[in-house]
Amino acid sequence: MSAEATDPGAPIRRRGRPRIDLRRLGRVALLGPVSRDRLPDAIGHVAEAHRAHHPDADLTVLHKAYVLAESSHRGQMRKSGEPYITHPLAVTLILAELGAETTTLTASLLHDTVEDTEVTLEQVREQFGEEVCYLVDGVTKLEKVDYGAAAEPETFRKMLVATGDDVRVMSIKLADRLHNMRTLGVMRPEKQARIAKVTRDVLIPLAERLGVQALKTELEDLVFAILHPEEYEHTRALIAAASPGSAAAGATATEDPLSTIAENVRAVLRDAGLSAEVLIRPRHYVSVHRVRIKRGELRGTDFGRLLVLVGEDADCYGVLGELHTCFTPVISEFKDFIAAPKFNLYQSLHTAVVGPGGAVAEVLIRTHRMHKVAEAGVIALGSPYAADGTSAPQTSEPADGERADPTRPGWLSRLLAWQQSAPDPDTFWTTLRADLAEDREITVFRTDGGTLGLPAGASCVDAAYAQYGDEAHSCIGARVNGRLARLSTVLSDGDTVQLLLAEDATSGPSPEWLDHARTPTARIAITGWLGAHPQDPQGSYGSRPAGRRPDPQPMASAHSGSDRSADRAATVVVGRPDATVRLAGCCTPVPPDAVTGFTVRGGAVTVHRQECPAVARMQGAGRTPVAVGWGDAAACRVTLVAESFGRPRLLADLTEAIATADAAIIAATVEPPSEQRVRHTYTLQLPDAAGLPALMRAMRDVPGVYDVSRAQHPAAAV
Fold first, then answer.
1. Which among 23, 411, 372, 50 has a CA at the least distance from the CA of 212?
2. Is 146 a catalytic residue?
3. Amino acid 52: pLDDT
4. What pLDDT, on a 0 to 100 scale, did the predictor assign at position 602?
5. Active-site hit among 7, 48, 115, 231
6. What is the 3-state secondary structure (H, E, C) of 498-532?
7. SS3 114
8. Could you check whether the bond before residue 592 is cis, i.e. omega within 30 degrees of 0?
9. Which of 331, 361, 601, 613 is deepest in the core (most CB within 10 A)?
10. Is 256 in the active site?
11. What pTM, to 2 d.p., does this model score?
């Protein structure tokens, strides 16, 4: 089978267009001016690729930009020995092949002029306008003489900030890095490795997130060849051996299992009346290597996938139905990225079918438009600031004065937010690489109708800082899908989350929050707060190391169980004269609870609430219940448990609420906090049992308290 797109040294080009010799073009560029009625040969190839995507594009500005770039770089040579103009030409050609609009190509031709020549940004602005100037400035490196070792991370920070306003900045940088990687062989091995690692850790993830798969896959192969030469050579040999007609394969194109399945798919779709183009899409080197690692041994169909291109979205599902009807589908391989697009704009249906002889072929189904976006990502969208997708500026600005950018994804907004808080270049550089390593995104819903985009694996801590910024320091808990959840709870795609903040804004995060924070925004904010409060006098709840929960500390001595029973039993009427009555400590019944009793050893009657689990157990054991009821006495004693999020003055506020309800505290126990949660147990004497519901409501209304319940302790053996 064909190994198209597996050669990491091959430039991206349209099928049928001859490969361009950039060295020859460089020499042509140095031959001087040409007649005014035609473009120079060098830029002519760029113009041809550009017109293939934009037939009506005005090429005058490209000619003008080329003339300035060629004249300003004249006499400069690359380390490979080529005239320097070949580099901006190659970068511009890459972008033209991907469908970039005229403004991007103009800036691409000029992207090194301000950095490496006497041309100034002001000159670029005067001749080509503000947008081109902004793009050129965005990709211009910071001087090492000014920034020293911080030059590289600070350059990337500057570039990312510029990308936040115009994603075309990063498009130019990615194409620039691709051409540099193609020609990296002239560098020293240690420099090749350093550049390849930065490309792997930063540029490739950025290409993935911006959806520019054509650049991402070639960059992956180039990095693979440099950092893992042995695995690369082994993979290259496997691909060569599997190519139809190779000596190792001893096969012809008609014997290629993927080609056979492709023909069967074409026949099925033709019989169904579906107009579709069925192509074999070879895997690139890194993709083949990953499949080999996953499966151990490669199958004949593992070197490529089938790509089915149709005209309309509905046709994608029609093709899927035919394939699943006429072939045996591998259901576990089905994914619908049309109904639920990836966060990098990618849309497609993925499936796998079993062909003749049991061969399994992976199939991608998408429209031609989806395919263009899948290959070129944000580059395929043209200028986000022009109503018609060209480089013309919008005639009106949004009311807030900012340009509306439909290509600015949530991950980029988060990156721009946390980079402002990164205290130094090293922190920024390390955090950037860690952030870009997160390759999946989830969306969670806020209770106010908004949404939060978070990396997969994010917790409630991350959601709190994403929604509230530094105000999240006072977060005391969350509700996930309506249920109370710990801040450490990992969120899933589609969850609804409500963050609960303490009224006391002086409270702060616990060190253990760092164990649950996945996003740089959360980690930087928490680390900053902890650094500024090394000895927090308030001692926020939850600061205790995770997993430690010391024994409860009693605040007042409690009466013995017999005393409690005696105090309360006076209100109980039992159907047995002279029987000793005890109120069960497992459910603490009080008027007007529905109650029942059971005779225990010694003839005493223990009274339980009817819904107490002990009642079911005793009835199951054959115990006969005793009729009991409440007398006229209204006073009662009850044990209540208050669950709350820790904060300063919580205990004082709870005791005040109890006192306001005219209840007396007989005993109280406060368990030390665990993960910002505190459990209070109170034994209370009420003057009137009818006031119990109001008391429980008053306790629940105390800020930080999320539940108050009657004590439920395991019943002792009776």
1. 372
2. no
3. 92
4. 65
5. 115
6. EEEECCCCCCCCCHHHHHCCCCHHHHHHHHHHHHH
7. helix
8. yes
9. 361
10. no
11. 0.65
